[in-house]
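> call design_seq(struct)
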């Protein structure tokens, strides 16, 4: 992807990427240091959406943008609570007239800023404005190759936007394809993934959930497409995440995990209330202005009966960080083992070899070094 860029653009991208990795490392250290702050908060600046995907329960057609001063106050409050990553979602957040100012505010607090969009309003100028505002990550979910009655988030409609992103974006881009009963042609997910990777983007594949965030089991054709996408490979931690949660869900099996939504993950609706996630709104339903560390600790620990068949992948990811915090050796060993099971010839990258050496090899000296690093991280 970098091959066609003017030299200056390439350098800017590399510098911004390095800076982002450094801030991610700090976020990771922060997540290790304490369990009493949110790792990730999703916040809705705009419930209205310019599309109407038939499976979606997260949009309306009438609401106004949340006024700028209110949004800024909510971002400041999330920063006071120590939130590491703030994600704008919707509805369609790019409809908000002050989105760039909101991104700048997130960055002014040192948090990582991400945006989930349907991509329809992206133009080269809009992408450059997002660069200037300091966006770190952008995610587009693409449901099919050709638009149909269910969804118009389609590769054919969005492909030009993807090319603009490849050309102009200084932030990281992830393309999410989807499998589920509402998606007519499961094969489309494979085509979307290969196109995304061809443009140099990260790709993920999600499983559609019902109106409570719960799994809708996949049929054999959908599972076959998932296996083909999985076989394309990807980053170690992407694999770990997919292995740990999605492989079970794909087979219709439940996961044994603790959901710490309401604590490590927060969902802030347009009315400024804290909810567990987009699919479990109303719990705890406390205004963000009044949300305290005690609320975070209590809700984080609260059992959630919807956890076994939950498909909300960003909450799975926060759980993976917590699992690393609590049991670093076992978590890392499990990740590496599952990756090697899939691909026996796989060689870990240098960073993983270093973690492996510190945490997993059998030596007293290394044990001591691992303990020191853990203490520093914590
Ligand atoms: S684009 Fe996103 S928010 Fe809008 S209707 Fe579709 S899934 Fe819902
Ligand atoms: S398990 Fe957690 S993230 Fe999943 S649906 Fe329930 S509350 Fe939401």
């Amino acid at each position: 992807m970098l091959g066609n860029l003017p030299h200056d653009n390439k350098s800017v991208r590399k510098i911004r990427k390095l800076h982002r990795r450094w801030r991610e490392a700090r976020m990771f250290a922060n997540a290790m240091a304490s369990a009493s702050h949110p790792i990730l908060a999703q916040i809705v600046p705009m419930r209205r959406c310019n599309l109407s995907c038939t499976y979606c329960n997260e949009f309306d057609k009438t609401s106004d943008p949340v006024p700028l001063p209110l949004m800024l106050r909510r971002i400041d409050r999330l920063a006071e609570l120590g939130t590491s990553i703030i994600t704008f979602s919707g509805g369609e957040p790019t409809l908000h007239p002050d989105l760039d100012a909101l991104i700048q505010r997130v960055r002014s607090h040192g948090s990582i800023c991400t945006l989930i969009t349907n991509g329809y309003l992206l133009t080269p100028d809009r992408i450059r404005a997002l660069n200037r505002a300091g966006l770190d990550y952008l995610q587009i979910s693409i449901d099919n190759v050709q638009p149909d009655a269910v969804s118009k988030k389609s590769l054919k409609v969005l492909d030009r936007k993807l090319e603009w992103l490849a050309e102009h974006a200084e932030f990281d881009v992830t393309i999410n394809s989807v499998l589920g009963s509402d998606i007519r042609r499961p094969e489309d997910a494979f085509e979307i993934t290969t196109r995304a990777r061809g443009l140099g983007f990260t790709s993920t594949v999600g499983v559609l959930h019902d109106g409570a965030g719960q799994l809708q089991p996949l049929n054999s054709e959908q599972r076959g497409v998932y296996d083909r996408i999985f076989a394309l490979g990807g980053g170690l931690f992407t694999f770990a995440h997919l292995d740990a949660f999605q492989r079970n869900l794909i087979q219709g099996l439940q996961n044994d995990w603790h959901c710490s939504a309401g604590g490590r993950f927060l969902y802030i609706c347009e009315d400024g209330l804290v909810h567990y996630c987009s699919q479990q709104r109303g719990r705890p339903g406390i205004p963000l202005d009044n949300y305290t560390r005690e609320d975070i600790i209590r809700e984080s620990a609260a059992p959630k009966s919807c956890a076994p068949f939950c498909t909300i992948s960003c909450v799975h990811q926060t759980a993976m960080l917590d699992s690393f915090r609590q049991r670093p050796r076992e978590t890392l060993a499990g990740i590496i083992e599952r990756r090697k099971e899939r691909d026996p010839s796989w060689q870990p990258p240098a960073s993983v070899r270093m973690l492996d050496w510190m945490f997993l090899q059998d030596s007293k000296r290394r044990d001591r070094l691992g303990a020191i690093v853990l203490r520093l991280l914590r």
